[in-house]
Automatic annotation (TrEMBL):
One of its GO terms (molecular function) is metal ion binding. It comes from Rhizobium gallicum bv. gallicum R602sp. This is Ferredoxin-like protein. Keywords: Electron transport, Iron, Iron-sulfur, Metal-binding, Plasmid, Transport. It comes from the Bacteria. InterPro entries: Fe-S_cluster_ET. Pfam families: Fer4_15.
Length: 80
């Protein structure tokens, strides 16, 4: 899973960080650092909680890469 960071929308509430301080990096003023975040499978629940807690919708959960990979693996498995 990946989290797309729209850091122009960030208002520095630090709610994401309160949920998952190891996943969301904030600067000294409490604003999220720019750049997408790749989330390991074991951290997905925490990361999505943090992303959903953002009142500014600055954190978008992107599952497309997972979905594409699943389809690819499924096609390989089925020979199609
Ligand atoms: S919760 Fe949203 S607005 Fe607050 S620091 Fe995190 S990304 Fe920025």
């Amino acid at each position: 899973m990946r989290i797309i960071v729209h850091n122009a929308k960030c208002q520095g509430h630090a709610r994401c960080w309160a949920q998952a301080p190891d996943i969301f990096d904030l600067n000294d003023e409490g604003y999220i650092l720019p750049g997408d975040i790749d989330v390991e499978e074991k951290d997905e629940l925490l990361a999505s909680r943090g992303a959903r807690s953002c009142p500014e919708r600055a954190l978008e959960i992107d599952r497309t890469s997972d979905a594409l990979l699943d389809r690819l693996l499924f096609n390989q498995h089925c020979g199609g």
